[in-house]
Structure formats: structure tokens, C-alpha cells
Amino acid sequence: MDLVDQMLGGNIKALTRLVTLIENQSPQIMKIMPKIYKKGGKALVIGMTGPPGAGKSTLVDQLIKLIRKEKKTVAVLAIDPSSPFSGGAVLGDRIRMQSHAQDLDVFIRSLGSRGSYGGLSRATKEIVRLFDAFGFDVILVETVGVGQSELSIMEVSDTTVVVLVPESGDTVQTLKAGLLEIANIFVVNKSDRPNASQMKHQLMEMVSLGPATLGSPTQWAIPVLQTQAVKGTGIEELWDKTLEHIKFLKKNHEAFEHKKQQERRGEFLEILTLAYQKEFLRRVQKETSLKTLLEEVEKGRKDPYTAAFQVINKT
Amino acid sequence: MDLVDQMLGGNIKALTRLVTLIENQSPQIMKIMPKIYKKGGKALVIGMTGPPGAGKSTLVDQLIKLIRKEKKTVAVLAIDPSSPFSGGAVLGDRIRMQSHAQDLDVFIRSLGSRGSYGGLSRATKEIVRLFDAFGFDVILVETVGVGQSELSIMEVSDTTVVVLVPESGDTVQTLKAGLLEIANIFVVNKSDRPNASQMKHQLMEMVSLGPATLGSPTQWAIPVLQTQAVKGTGIEELWDKTLEHIKFLKKNHEAFEHKKQQERRGEFLEILTLAYQKEFLRRVQKETSLKTLLEEVEKGRKDPYTAAFQVINKT
Question: Which is nearest to A110 in space by CA: A78, A154, A145, A155?
């Protein structure tokens, strides 16, 4: 696997090829990932989620500028679970981020949905690990926030920023519990629009009434910030609060370590489960008995429980 | 397992106890479910999803009245993934449905989130199968629509109704692709409010531009209905369209059967995966080597891939 060594040596082409391998869920991953795990652990991982049109990409763009001023390197992973496209996706807001295309210390990649949510969630975590191993100082993960994808962003990020706009009242109502579970920081972007302060107050009330962020120490008071990304307003405050949250996590070392342990356990069970599934499907191709079993289930001749029982008892 | 026989004989107490077993994910399920699978297949399963406050419970309440007029029996499963409560959950809108509490041919049960989404999704399917086996003519599954839970409602329902209100513009934007994936019928409830027709047109445009509902024959034109559930307006049309959709499915037998086969395959893999996971966790308790392995992963001393590899190679 000298591809991994090349990547660790700073080769961008090797990095890109590894991203593609992960994206395609190549069987090689099981051998590549352990090497990558050994190297990471230093990057700051920041998740940005929210409805489409909330201005996440513009915020990311502004954050990149700020981070680059501090001479730190940045990788961006933009996930769109609703898009079947990936890698070279031509999205309007991707183009804007191309303002950094000349900057070799900014690496931007987007990831669309291929197949199941489980696959996308896995690939997200793996690519973040890869960016971390490569040595980026900051990794920004941007995703259109719809249920499951938000949960996976939380699992991979140190700090999760939920970006809303003054018109998001209905979304906030809909996702209420989900939002509180994932947000470490709320941002009301496009704050020049009417109702921006109402939105801010709605969120502040939700934060004060709601339970503490799951998996996060109880003492962190989720801040509600206002930004106007196109003008660059409020970006510094957002960055400051992010760094403050990271500091908070490090200070509360025990709680942080507990969260990490839960994540690692979850990740292990996820990998194990997917590996079992793949292994099972691989065996189905070979063993006639399993193929017949799957067919019987598909045609409703055998119930899935009896069939699952049969498989488990065999192994 | 005479509990299953009692239930099949029409014993409501046995039915209730079986629901509780499923809810608690009792290990007995693996033995109970095959018997239940043998009996079902006749009920009409209708899913209702949408944001909180859209009036789903009132719609369900009105539908029950209509279905009861036709002398059909009804079971309702109300799922709230954001609630940690279950079974006897005291929800405001549950109380309204108590108007049918005297009616022995209406069975209402609610289900909150316990643990993972995966568990809730599984329990939902199992309870629906149980209601089906008991012999209810119609099963209404109501859920607060947030990402993952919507997908599971689609997997279990013949017809999925997405309920929105005139103010749901932002939600529609956020969930766009997700909504088109699951909706067989759109309902704009509270249609006396301003912007009801705009909402209707926004949905109609989305339907006309969007891809055909996944897993459903391409020729079904998703209707967009208007209702005012509190007054009972539009309920008959909703029921008619639901029956029309069921007829459509039956007419397009091959496409329907294809969808069913995919669902059965998915369900089998889901059960198999959960069973593997449980089996693994069960073995962890016993085998010191596995316990040590899990601890090493949790503490970050061993990466999850290497550990998963180790487990797979052993089995």
C-alpha cells in the first residue's frame, strides 16, 4: 500500500485517489484504514449543517479566509445526501469556494449520496480520518441537514454548528429534538433579513428549555450567533466561539473522553456490522444454499426471522 | 408460545403483551415473529408523516371515523422518535384519539424512541406485522417526520401520506428529495389558513419536476390534497385517493411485487445485521478476549478496522 505512504508524505494526488477509493467503498479500505487511523488525531473537525439556502457554503468560504490568515491548512468535505452526484459535482456554491482553488493549503471535496445512508455516513467518517492523517489543521464538514446525515456529522465533529436563517421557524419546529441533539453552536445567517432577532430568540428559548446536548458535557451553554456571511459579518465571533467550544471540551477531559469512547464503540459496531453484511453478501454469491435462502425470503416464501436464525446458527 | 395463539384467537391482552415484548426488544422476538409472519398479509397499511403541529392525529382521528363507518377494524401505531416515552405516553393529541377508546374495534398504541433509530425502525415493522396478524383491516402508522423515521414508515406502508400545513414552505425546501422519496399522497392540512393554495402549488410543482417515487411504479401521479381535519373537510377525498393508490399498486402487480421483494430483502438484512450485533455483544459478555478487544477500541488503543477484521476472521 505505498499509496498511503505517498499520501502521508504530502502527495495530493495520492490523497485524491484514496478519497475515491473510500467513495466507491472499495474492499481495499479495510486494509488502508488501520494505517490511516494510526496517524490522525490532531485536526480540529468542525461540522456545519442546516437547510439548503441557509448560506453554509458562504460561511465555510469566509471561515477558510479567516483560518488561512492564521496560516493553518484547511480541508473541506461537502456532503449532499440528496444528490446522486459526487466528487466532481458541479454545484453553484461549490464554484464560489473555488476562490481558494489556487491556494494549495485548502483542499475541497464534495460527496454525494450513493446507495444507503449508512454508506454515506461511513464514507464521511473515513474521509475525515484521511484528511486528519494527511495533516490538515482544520477540517470543515458541510452537509445539507436532513435527519440521519446530521447525526453522522455530530459523530465525526468536535464542534457542530447548525446554520439557520430568519425564515427557518418551521424547520426548527420540525427538527426540534434533533437540532438540540447535535448543535454546539447555532448561527442565524442572513441576519439582515426581517425576523432575524425573533429567530434568535426562538432558538435561545429552545436552548434554555431543552435538554443538554447529548454526549456533550452539560455545562456548555449553546450560543446563538447572528451572521451575514456574504458581508463577512459575525465570522470572527463564530470562529472564536468554535475555539472556545474546543477549549471547553479539552478542559472537561473526562466527559470528552467518555464521548470519544462511545463514538469509538459505535464506529466499531458500525464497521463490524457492515463488514458482516458484506461478508454475508459475498458468501451469497458463492454458496448456493445462501442464494436460495435469499430468494425464498425475497419471494415471501420464508419469513426473514427464520432465515436470519438459520444463518446465525450456521456461523 | 401460547401467547401468540391467544393473540391469534383475538385476545387483546395477549396482543398488548406482545407489543410490549417487541417494544423492549425481548430476545423471545426471534421465536415469536416467524409465527406472526405466517398469518399476516391482509391489512391495508397506511403511513402518515409530517412535521409536529401539522394535525396528523386529527386526520387519523377523522380517518378512523370514516373507516369505522365501513365496519372495518383499525389499529393505530403512533411513533414519536423525539420522545423517550412509550406505551402509555401522555401526549395531548393522544387524548383526542380516546374518543374511540370505547370502540373495541379500534386499537391505539404509541411508541417512543428507546435507544437507537435502528431499534425503533425494527419495532415499528414488527408491531405492524403483529397488528396485521391479529386481523385488523386497516393499520394507520403515524409518525413525526424527521429523516430516518420517514424512511422506515415508507418501508412498512402500502401508501404513505405526507401531511403539511400552509407554513411548511421551509420544511419542504429542506426535505425536498426526502419527501419525494416517500410520499404517495401529499396533504395540505389546515387549508383555511393563508397561503394554503401557494403551498399546494409549490408541492404540485415539486411533484411535476421531481423524480418518480422510489420503489413505486413510475406512472402514479402523486396527488396534492387539501384538508381541514378539525372540520372533517377533505377526509373522504383522502380516503378515496388512498384506496385508489392501493388499487393502482395491485393493478401494477409486477412493479408492486418488485418493491415488496426489495423490502423483504432489506428487512432480512436488517434482522440479520441486528442479530449479528446482538450475538456479538452477547459473546462479548462471555468471552474475555472480545471484552478486552472492545475496551481497546473504546480507549483508542486499537483502531476499529483492525478490531473488526479480527472478529470477522474468527467467525
Answer: A78
Is the Cβ of A33 closer than 8 Å to some Cβ of chain B?
yes
With beta carbons under 8 A apart, name residues in chain A contacting B264: 297-300, 304
Q: Give the helix/strand (H/E) hosting A307.
A: helix A304-314
Q: Give the whole-angstrom CA distance, residue B64 versus residue B242.
A: 14
Smallest CA–CA distance from A304 into chain B, residue: B268
Give CA–CA dist A179/A99, Å, rounded.
Answer: 31
Burial of B170 (0-12, 13-18, 19+ CB in 10 A): buried
Task: Compute φ and ψ for A48, nearest 5 degrees.
Answer: -125, 120
Partners of B310 on chain A (C-beta within 8 Å) are none
Classify residue A229 as exposed, middle or buried by CB count within 10 Å of its CB (0-12, 13-18, 19+).
buried
Q: What is the pTM of this model?
A: 0.68
Residues within 8 A of A (CB atoms), B 150-169 only: 150-151, 167-169
ipTM over 0.90: no
- Chain B: nearest CA to A9, how far in angstroms? 21
Residue B191: which of B236, B237, B246, B234 has the closest Cα? B234
Chain B residues closer than 8 Å to A307 by CB = 268, 272
User: Looking at per-residue confidence, does A260 or B226 come out higher?
Assistant: B226
Q: Of B11-25, B97-111, B140-154, which one has max mean pLDDT?
A: B11-25
Nearest chain A residue to B80 by CA distance is: A177
**CA–CA separation, B306 and A32 (whole Å):** 10
Domain ranges of chain A: 2-251, 268-314
Angle at A311 between CA A274 and CA A278, to 5 degrees: 20
DSSP 3-state of A52: coil
For A251-302, how does the pLDDT look when each residue is reduced to its tens digit (9 = 90+)? 888 878 887 888 888 888 888 877 777 777 777 778 888 889 999 999 989 9
Q: Which fold has domain A2-251?
A: Rossmann fold (3.40.50)
CB contacts of B272 in chain A (<8 Å) are 277, 280, 304, 307-308, 311-312
Render B67-118 in DSSP notation, one character per residue.
HHHTT--EEEEEEETT-S--BT---HHHHHHGGGTT-TTEEEEEEE--S-HH
Quote the cell numbers at residue A14: 495520492
From B145, which residue of chain A is nearest by alpha-carbon distance?
A: A174
pLDDT of residue A168: 83
Instruction: Tell me the C-alpha distance between B254 and B17, whole Å.
Output: 37
- For A143-153, what is each residue's pLDDT tens digit? 876 445 555 67
Beta strands in chain A (DSSP E): 44-50, 74-80, 106-112, 138-144, 159-164, 185-188, 224-226
* Sequence letter at residue B91: L
- Indicate left, alpha or beta for B15 from its phi (over 0: left) and psi (-120 to 50: alpha): alpha
CA distance B209 to B137: 35
> Rounded to whole angstroms, how far apart are CA atoms B236 and B225?
11
